[in-house]
Amino acid sequence: MARRYVVTGRGGQVAQSLIERAEHHGEIEIIPLARPNLDLADIGTIEKALVEARPELIISAAAYTAVDQAESDAAKAFVVNGAALSEIGRVASKLNVPIIHLSTDYVFDGDKSSPYQESDPVAPLCVYGRSKLEGEHRLIASGADYVILRTAWVYSPFNKNFLRTMLHLAGSHDELAVVADQYGNPTSALDIADAILTVADNLLSSRDQRLRGMFHMAGSGEASWADFASEIFRISAEMGGPSAIVHPIPTAQYPTPALRPTNSRLDCSKLEQIHGVRLPVWNIATATTVQRLLASGAPENRPAWKRHFEENCR
Ligand SMILES: NC(=O)c1ccc[n+]([C@@H]2O[C@H](COP(=O)([O-])OP(=O)(O)OC[C@H]3O[C@@H](n4cnc5c(N)ncnc54)[C@H](OP(=O)(O)O)[C@@H]3O)[C@@H](O)[C@H]2O)c1
């Protein structure tokens, strides 16, 4: 009998990656729950959707992820990323199933000069970060059997993300200005999916309390956004795909509605020690995703790339 795991959100990067990667992890059925049946902005939908899905474990991956938009839509961000977690946690407890919840590096203010550990003080700079922190608190207070995995800078072949945006922009720009004074850990959603499935297995195999609680989980190594963009274009150019010259700029030259931490690097050693999970080095995983995206297009010429990315990489 396959194990039944529910994941919230169907089209999200992590949800899509889980659906794909579950095939490599033995007998696991991933059941995605999405709007309108499960709408985190409508708390009343949550219990029915989760109970009817009969999960053995819940993966909470859906979120209000539009970081800048959240600044002017705070009430909704706080319901979806915050209040909904009280209800998901309550229902998980009622069903007596563990929950793996994804949170973010943006709970930190970035003032630390080294990678953040789970025990470091939180002080989010933006509405998105504050709403995700509220979700952490709500889930913990719900009494659920939980793991919170804080991750960062997520990209994948799916949905909207920085890697796809860069490839798309390179279809129409020879040069791009990219922020070079924010540092973090680019993280492949496919690697996140593998990690979640291992953590899920550990949770279902043991009641050990050390397996529960807060963990950081991000790609190994670190980069600025400009480093990340340069690597994407280096790999793409090697394959004859779109690329652009990257001009490193300070954050001050690229103001956004939401403030972001200058350092949001995560120390992921606790996850490795306790769950035996270490994510691959970020540029190796980046290469895998770029190669996969390019291979799904027509590799002969640049106009074909442009068409492919205009159609697929928005
Ligand atoms: N992306 C990042 O860089 C990043 C960084 C750190 C942490 N995280 C966290 O990692 C998790 C997964 O992120 P991701 O990149 O996979 O997100 P994503 O690709 O932006 O997908 C978010 C998902 O949430 C769903 N969703 C949004 N509002 C909803 C609502 N009211 N009810 C039900 N579903 C709703 C979306 O549904 P639709 O498909 O219908 O739109 C979508 O499937 C999130 O918890 C996020 O906060 C992400």
Describe the structure in your own words.
There is one protein chain. This protein is an alpha/beta fold and 314 residues long. The chain has a domain at 3-160 and 187-220 and 266-275: NAD(P)-binding Rossmann-like Domain (Rossmann fold), CATH 3.40.50.720. It has ten helices and twelve strands. The protein has helices at residues 13-21, 46-53, 74-95, 127-141, 162-170, 189-205, 225-238, 269-275, 282-295, 302-312; strands at residues 3-8, 28-33, 57-60, 99-104, 146-151, 154-155, 175-179, 183-184, 187-188, 213-216, 223-224, 245-249. The strands form four sheets. Strands 2-1-3-4-5-10 form a six-stranded parallel β-sheet, sandwiched between helices. Strand 1 (3-8), helix 1 (13-21) and strand 2 (28-33) form a beta-alpha-beta unit. The protein is globular, with a radius of gyration of 19 Å. Mean pLDDT is 93; it is low at 298-303. Bound molecules: NADP nicotinamide-adenine-dinucleotide phosphate. The site of NADP nicotinamide-adenine-dinucleotide phosphate has 29 residues, from helix 1 and strand 4.
Label this structure with key terms:
16% strand, 6-stranded parallel sheet, alpha/beta, binds NADP nicotinamide-adenine-dinucleotide phosphate, globular
The helical percent reads 40-55%
- Helical/strand content category: alpha/beta
Shape: globular
- The CATH class name of the domain at 3-160 and 187-220 and 266-275 reads Alpha Beta
Task: Evaluate the radius of gyration.
Answer: 19 Å
Low-confidence stretches: 298-303
Biggest β-sheet: strands ordered side by side in the sheet: 2-1-3-4-5-10
Q: Name the helix and strand elements from N-terminus to C-terminus, one letter apiece.
A: EHEHEHEHEEHEEEHEEHEHHH
- Assembly level: single chain
Q: Please identify, by name, the CATH architecture of the domain at 3-160 and 187-220 and 266-275.
A: 3-Layer(aba) Sandwich
How much beta, percentage-wise?
Answer: 15-25%
Q: Assign the CATH superfamily of the domain at 3-160 and 187-220 and 266-275.
A: NAD(P)-binding Rossmann-like Domain
